Amino acid sequence: SRVSHLNKSIAEIEAALQLLLKLKVDYKGATGQDYQAGSPPAENMDESGNRSIADGADDDTVDPWNVSTTSAKGVDYDKLIVRFGSSKIDKELVDRIEKVLGQKPHRFLRRGIFFSHRDMHQVLDAYEKQKAFYLYTGRGPSSEAMHMGHLIPFIFTKWLQDVFDIPLVIQMTDDEKYLWKDLTLEQCHHYAVENAKDIIACGFDINKTFIFSDLDYMGSSPEFYRNVVKIQKHVTFNQVKGIFGFTESDCIGKISFPAIQAAPSFSNSFPQIFGGKQDVQCLIPCAIDQDPYFRMTRDVAPRIGYPKPALLHSTFFPALQGAQTKMSASDANSSIFLTDTPKQIKNKVNKHAFSGGKDTVEEHRQHGGDPDVDVSFMYLTFFLEDDEQLEKIKQDYRSGALLTGELKKILIDTLQPMISEHQERRTQVTDEMVQQFMTPRPLNFRY
Amino acid sequence: SRVSHLNKSIAEIEAALQLLLKLKVDYKGATGQDYQAGSPPAENMDESGNRSIADGADDDTVDPWNVSTTSAKGVDYDKLIVRFGSSKIDKELVDRIEKVLGQKPHRFLRRGIFFSHRDMHQVLDAYEKQKAFYLYTGRGPSSEAMHMGHLIPFIFTKWLQDVFDIPLVIQMTDDEKYLWKDLTLEQCHHYAVENAKDIIACGFDINKTFIFSDLDYMGSSPEFYRNVVKIQKHVTFNQVKGIFGFTESDCIGKISFPAIQAAPSFSNSFPQIFGGKQDVQCLIPCAIDQDPYFRMTRDVAPRIGYPKPALLHSTFFPALQGAQTKMSASDANSSIFLTDTPKQIKNKVNKHAFSGGKDTVEEHRQHGGDPDVDVSFMYLTFFLEDDEQLEKIKQDYRSGALLTGELKKILIDTLQPMISEHQERRTQVTDEMVQQFMTPRPLNFRY
C-alpha cells in the first residue's frame, strides 16, 4: 500500500496546488497586486482606503455590522484570510500551542473554529521566554438577549485565561451601541451590566478579569482617554472610510469610535492592572468581523510607540436557518438564547435547524446527508467535546446510518444541559460580584 | 443750536440708513435670502453645510484657527454679526445690563469690545426672576507664553462672575492642542496647568470657579463623557465639514473634537457643581472666532433636551503691527506677553506698535492722526478705564494736539503697572491653589 499512499499524496498535492492557484487569483482580485511569497499585503492603509473590506461585489460581506454570504456552507474563510491579510491557524500552530501548554488545545482550535491569527507565534515566543501578555475581548451590548453565538469568544477566552494564567480585560461597548442604535445611554449601560452577568457566568476568574463599560471607564481613567486621543490623532477620516465604509452623513461619534475599541489593545490603558507599563503584549480573541478594528489598531500601534496586538479570529456561529447569515438577537427563532428553556431548545432545533438530510428516510438511508450544510451538525462541532464521537456522527450522517431526527436529538441532549448549567451559574452571579468585576483595580497574575 | 443738533441727528440717521442698506446687501450675499426684520437666518445647519463661515472669498476669514482681514481697522464686525446670525450688543442691551446690575457695565461692553451676543436678553430675564445660570469659557493651551489678547475673555468673565455672583467653569482644551499641534500629550497638559496659573492670577473666586484640563476631566467624569457621546451622535461629518472646514484627510480626533468643546455648555456635565441638574442656563463669553463651536452646540441642544447656551462675543485684540491679524504667541514682537518686563513693554510699544500718526511732527500737528488704525489707541480702548480721558486722547490725537510718542507714552504707563501687577499676582498662585481650582468639587453660590 505504498502505492496507494503515494497516489493519495499526489491527489493531496494536486488539490493544494489548485487551492493555491485559486488563492492567487483571489489575491490579485482583492489587492490589485500579484501575490509574492513572503510579502504579505501591506497593513498600511493609505488615504485611498484601498484596504476596504467592502469591495468586491460578489465576495462575502464581512464587517463589524454586516456578515452575509450566498453559500450554505457559510463564509469562505480561506478567502477571508487572503483578503484580510491574516494567517491561517494551521496544524503547525495548533501543535505548537499543544507543546507549549503541555495539554490538548481547545476544540475550537482543533476544529478550525478559531481559524485565523495575527502574530500568535510571537505571543508564544514571548510566553516561552516567560514574558507577559494579556487578553482583551469584548461585546457590544445592544439588548439583554444573548444567544449562544455570543458565547463563542468568551468560552474560548476563558480557556486561554485558564491555560496561560493571564489577566483579561473585557470591553462592553455601550457607547458604540448608543451611537449605532435607537437606544438611550441608560438602556445601553443597563444592557452592558446585564450582559456582563452572562459573561461572568462563563466562569472567568474574578482575580484576573476586569470587565468595563465604556461609558463608565472613559470617565474613570485619564490614561484610557489619553490613548483614545493618541489613536484619534493618527487615523484620518479617509482611513476609517476605507476600513469601515463610513460616509460623510455618519455622525462624528461613529467616525471616531474605532479609537475607543482600539485603546484597550495597549496595556497602559489599564494602569491599575499593569502599573503604567506600555509594552505588555495584547492578545485579542474575537470573531473575524471585528478584525477591521484591529487592522487599524495594528497600523497605528508602531506610530505611537506601542506593540501591535496579536489576534485569534473565530468563524461565525451559524443561524438555525443556515450558515448564510450570523445569528440575530432580534429574531427569536434564528438562535438558541441563553434564557431558552429545555422545551424551547428542543422545539427550535427540531423546527428551525436547517437540515442537510434527504427528504425521505428511504432517500437518506440510500444517499446519506450532507453534514457540511447541516446546522445541527455544525452546532455539534462547536459544543461536542469528544472528537471521535463527532467524527463518527459525521460519517454516519454522510452514510445515511444516522437520520436527521437522531442527529437533532444528539444536539438537543448536548445543548439542554449546557444552557441549564449556564442559567444556574448566572443566578449565582450577584450584583456585588458584577460590581467587583467592573471596578478598576489591580489583578493577580505572575510576573 | 437746536438746528445743529437736528443736522447732526439727520446725518446720523442717514449714516444708519446707509449701513442698513449695506447690511441688507451683505445679508443676501451671505445667506441667499432677502432680509426680513424679525426672522434671523435659521440656525439649523443642513447636510450641505451651507452655514460655512469660510465661504465668500473676499470676506474676512474668521474661524477658530484663522483670523485675517485686509483692513487696517480690523475685521468688519457688523458683517460678521450678519454672517454668523448673532445679535449686536446695542445700547439698549448695555443699558439693560446697567439697570439689572445697578452698576456701570464693564468698559468692554461700553466700548463695543464685546459687540455681539446670542440670547443675552433671555439670560437677563432669567436673572431678574432669580433663576440660575453659570459661566463657561476656555483656553487652548498651546504654549506657556500667554499674551495680553488671551486675557480679554478672562478679564471680562471675572467681572461677570463678580457682578452676577455665579459659578464659572473654564475648559483647558489640551486634547485639542495635542490633536492640532506637533506637541506631546505631556506638553499640552503641562501648558494647561501653567496657563491656569495666569488665568487664576486674573482674580477668579476659588469658591466659584472650576478649571479643568480635558485630558484629566474626561477621565474623571462619566457624566462629561456621556454628554460628549450624546453630542457626537447628533452631529454628522457633513456638518462639521460645513462649520469648521474639516476635510477627509483630517484625523478623526479633530473631526470629533467639537463635541468636547460643546459639552461644558450643559450643566449636567458638572454634577459636582449642579447636582445633576440639566437645565441650568449657560452663558459663554468668548472671542467671536469660537462662535462656530457654539452655533453647533445651539443646534444640537434642543435635540438632546438641553437649553441652548447664551453667548457674548468679543472682537479680536490687535497685533502690535496692526489690526489685520490676531496676535500670535509664536511671534514675540507681535504682542505684549504676560512675562514681559517694563523695559520690553516700552521697547515693543515704541518700536512695533503700528501708528496712525503722520510722518513728521509738522504734518501731524497740521492734519492730525488716525486713531481708528492706531494700535496704541486701540490698546487704550481695551485697558484705560476712564471714558472721558479716552475720548480726550482720541480727539487730541485726531486734531494733532497729541503726538504719536505721547500717545505711546500713555499706553506704556498704562500697560507697565498692569502687567507687573499680573506678574505679582501670578507669583502668589501656589501649586496647591492650582490643584484646588482644578479639582472637581462643589462650588458655593446662591439658589
Automatic annotation (TrEMBL), chains A, B:
Q: Which PROSITE patterns match?
A: AA_TRNA_LIGASE_I (PS00178)
* Residue ranges of the region described as Disordered: 33-60
Coiled-coil stretches: none
Signal peptide location:
none
Q: Which SUPFAM superfamilies match?
A: Nucleotidylyl transferase
- Identify the domain of life: Eukaryota
State any GO CC term: cytoplasm
Key words of the record: Aminoacyl-tRNA synthetase, ATP-binding, Ligase, Nucleotide-binding, Protein biosynthesis
GO BP of this protein? tryptophanyl-tRNA aminoacylation
Q: What class of enzyme is it?
A: ligase
Under the heading NCBIfam families, the entry gives:
trpS (TIGR00233)
Q: What is the name of the protein in this document? A: Tryptophan--tRNA ligase, cytoplasmic
